[in-house]
Design brief:
This protein is an alpha+beta fold. The chain has eleven helices and twelve strands. The strands form two sheets. Strands 1, 2, 3, 4, 5, 6 and 7 form a seven-stranded antiparallel β-sheet that branches. Strands 9-8-12-11-10 form a five-stranded antiparallel β-sheet.
Length: 494
């Protein structure tokens, strides 16, 4: 009972926690009518679900004074009518303060059945009495809880019984219904009970000496006490240990679903608790390993996906850079063509100016130079026509160059957008690499290089956009000048 009273479920003095444990003990203990937990004010909760107050009970009043394990007087059960005793033990809080008591109602039927099967010699028999001499187990069922050997009606037996109760262990002689008998006793643990064995003296003295007979009676009494204790111990220890052993063998096969359900007292309960904690620890470790593997697989998949995306973006950036380079080369070629066309136009204009000056000089000359003037005018007209044609070509080239400059601007804007997206992807890849710890260290370097490439592409795209804007401005100026020249030449031809 002390081991039961020390369980955490009972030391809490919380009925909601303690009652499931008490019910489990009551289910497995066939000799127990019920188990219970009580407070110091007498409020009691029983394993059968009922609640009452035991402050007026004899054993509760004795416990209030002695505050130790004790056995009650035997009594008839109100529920079954069978003889029983109540065993109680103190319940202490974790801080060592007495908080209540735990107990069980123990049926004496099994004990009476065992006593009724024993015999000593021909007519001798054993029986058990409590600390006051009341028979709690006797071969004659009518004597149970009725016969008190200190008030038997035989002075001889009364004196012998009182002597045995006083010294607990010994041998006395008495007369019962005209028959001389020996009676021997031995104590039963801490219960306060005595195992008593009696036999007629003639049966002992037949062929043996008195000392041998007395020794045999005492040995029988001790043996009966030992058997009683063995029965109690085997019920409380043997079965729980066997059950724990079977469950431990299941655990050894790797089956972590096993439950340590055996219940017992003292070291048996400590062993069950330790095995339960071991199983819980193993389950926790296996769960952590599974979660770690799942997280690692998820991180690897994310890194792989980010790497694939980054590679695609890098390839697209490389293609766009190639397009930018081709556009720049084409723009350079167009600029050269514009420069050549502009130089040709300037030469034509200079030549035209020279022709005009020559015509001016010729108009002030003699009439004989009129024919040369006409020829010069024809050459001038041809030159103006050629100049107008070159001006139109130049104008078309300038318009084409203006259109392609706009395309270069669009390409630069696309490259800028791609560079920003690449930079964002590189940042996400760096974050995923950091989550993967050591496994993502190499990928973090790649992500950093991609980020740098994206920043460099963005800067180059900005430079191209600025240069394209400047060239576009110059082209617009050249286009305006060429258009003015073409218009002037057209007016001159008229």
């Amino acid at each position: 009972m002390e081991a039961l009273a020390s369980l955490p479920a009972l030391t809490s003095l919380d009925p909601a926690v303690a009652l499931p444990v008490l019910r489990e003990f009551a289910t497995k203990d066939q000799e127990a009518e019920f188990y219970f937990l009580a407070r110091l004010d007498g409020t009691r909760w029983r394993s059968d679900g009922s609640q009452d107050n035991i402050s007026d009970r004899e054993y509760f009043q004795r416990f209030s004074k002695e505050k130790k394990v004790l056995w009650s007087r035997a009594e008839h059960s109100k529920a079954t009518g069978a003889p029983r005793v109540v065993v109680v033990a103190p319940v202490y809080r974790p801080d060592g303060i007495l908080a209540g008591l735990a107990g069980m109602a123990l049926s004496l039927n099994r004990l009476n059945e065992y006593v009724s099967r024993l015999s000593i010699g021909g007519t001798g028999y054993p029986y058990i009495v409590d600390s006051e001499g009341l028979c709690i187990a006797h071969p004659v069922r009518e004597n149970v809880l009725k016969l008190n050997i200190t008030r038997s009606g035989s002075e001889s037996l009364d004196r012998a019984a009182q002597a045995l109760l006083a010294k607990k262990r010994g041998v006395e002689r008495y007369v019962w219904e005209g028959v001389d008998k020996y009676v021997a006793s031995a104590p039963v643990g801490t219960t306060g009970w005595l195992v008593v064995a009696t036999q007629p003296i003639k049966e002992f003295l037949a062929g043996i000496r008195l000392a041998t007979a007395v020794a045999l009676i005492a040995l029988a009494a001790v043996a009966a006490a030992a058997v009683l204790l063995a029965l109690l111990l085997s019920r409380q220890i043997g079965r729980p240990v066997a059950e724990l052993s079977r469950q431990a063998e299941v655990l050894a096969t790797g089956n972590l679903a096993v439950e340590m359900r055996a219940s017992g007292f003292g070291e048996v309960e400590v062993l069950r608790g330790s095995l339960t904690r071991v199983v819980g620890g193993l389950r926790s470790i296996v769960g952590s390993v599974r979660e770690g593997i799942g997280s690692l697989e998820e991180a690897v998949n994310e890194i792989s996906s980010a790497a694939t995306t980054t590679a695609q973006v890098a390839q697209q950036v490389a293609e766009n850079v190639g397009q930018i380079s081709a556009g720049a080369e084409e723009m350079s070629a167009n600029a050269s063509a514009i420069s050549q066309a502009s130089g040709s136009t300037a030469a034509k204009i200079e030549e035209l100016t020279a022709r005009v000056e020559e015509i001016s000089r010729l108009t002030h000359g003699a009439a004989d130079r009129t024919r040369e003037g006409e020829k010069a005018l024809e050459r001038l007209a041809a030159g103006l026509t050629e100049a107008a044609r070159q001006g139109e070509v130049t104008q078309r080239i300038v318009e084409e160059l203006t259109r392609k400059t706009g395309q270069v601007k669009d390409i630069a804007a696309v490259i800028t957008g791609i560079a920003e997206q690449t930079n964002l992807l590189a940042l996400n890849a760096a974050i995923e690499a950091a989550r993967a710890a050591d496994h993502g260290r190499g990928f973090a370097v790649v992500a950093e290089e991609v980020r740098k490439l994206a920043e460099e592409s963005s800067r180059r795209a900005d430079d191209i956009a600025g240069l394209t804007q400047e060239v576009g401005g110059d082209i617009e100026k050249a286009a305006f000048a060429v258009a003015s020249t073409v218009r002037l030449l057209a007016e001159q031809q008229k």
